């Protein structure tokens, strides 16, 4: 039985009552949560394979908003079906072909325009998980409008030296026990960034943590993992606060 490359156990998940609301932006639906005071700072959250409606991702959106950012998670799958825990792993490569995390530029532009024109955002950061972590890595190479990025356990794609010339500060978060990303790959990423990257970057590996660890809601956390999950989230927010 081959371990599924992106997925983590979504079985024992608690229900979550969201604090934000849904909006339609051009061809995209999105989930938005605003802080209790007005601000010109915003964060885009890029969901994982489970899509923009998954309760863990909405929890993260609300969490970031509580730190003073207009936070938005658009449907980067554009209305197509997200992966679900009951889908069969053999179909995953085909599903991925139609859900390429490197093809998110148009959606990102639509959301950036909305944040600037409708929400008055002047500084905009981006955070992404797993599939979304890959999308963030891509966008931080391509879109100078994104002031800072946090990529959480996005599989590392090695296709060219161009993968390391980040435009703005980017933080890469990994779990030590992630079966989809080897420590060798992480060391290589660090090596290449040292060579090619001209902006601040950071890589951090959290002990004993598996793929998907950072988006668990508090009541779904195991006691041993809790300190690392909380640390990763604090680190994510601190990075955003430093640059956005």
Automatic annotation (TrEMBL):
Residue ranges of every copy of the Dienelactone hydrolase domain listed in the record: 29-242
GO molecular function terms noted in the UniProt entry: hydrolase activity
Entry's Gene Ontology cellular component terms: cytosol
Gene3D superfamilies named in the record: alpha/beta hydrolase
Cellular location(s): Cytoplasm, Cytosol
Source organism superkingdom: Eukaryota
InterPro entries: AB_hydrolase_fold, CMBL, Dienelactn_hydro
Family: Belongs to the dienelactone hydrolase family.
Name of the protein in its database record: Carboxymethylenebutenolidase homolog
Organism per entry: Pomatorhinus ruficollis (streak-breasted scimitar babbler)
Gene encoding the protein: Cmbl_0
């Amino acid at each position: 039985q081959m371990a599924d490359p992106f997925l983590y156990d979504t079985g024992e998940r608690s229900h979550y009552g969201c604090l934000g609301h849904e909006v339609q932006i051009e061809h995209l639906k999105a989930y938005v949560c605003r802080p209790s005071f007005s601000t010109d700072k915003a964060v885009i959250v890029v969901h994982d394979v489970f899509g923009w409606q998954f309760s863990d991702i909405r929890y993260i959106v609300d969490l970031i908003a509580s730190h003073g950012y207009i936070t938005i998670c658009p449907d980067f799958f554009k209305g197509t079906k997200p992966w679900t825990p009951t889908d069969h792993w053999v179909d995953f490569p085909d599903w991925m072909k139609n859900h390429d995390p490197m093809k998110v530029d148009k959606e990102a532009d639509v959301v950036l325009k909305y944040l600037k024109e409708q929400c008055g955002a002047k500084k905009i950061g981006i955070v992404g998980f797993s599939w979304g972590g890959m999308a963030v890595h891509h966008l931080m190479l391509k879109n100078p409008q994104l002031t800072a990025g946090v990529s959480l356990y996005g599989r590392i794609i090695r296709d060219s030296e161009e993968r390391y010339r980040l435009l703005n500060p980017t933080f890469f978060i990994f779990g030590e026990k992630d079966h989809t990303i080897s420590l060798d790959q992480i060391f290589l990423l660090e090596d290449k960034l040292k060579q090619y990257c001209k902006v601040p970057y950071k890589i951090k590996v959290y002990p004993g943590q598996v793929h998907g660890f950072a988006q668990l809601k508090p009541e779904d956390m195991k006691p041993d993992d809790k300190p690392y999950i909380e640390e990763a989230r604090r680190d994510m927010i601190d990075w955003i606060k430093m640059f956005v």
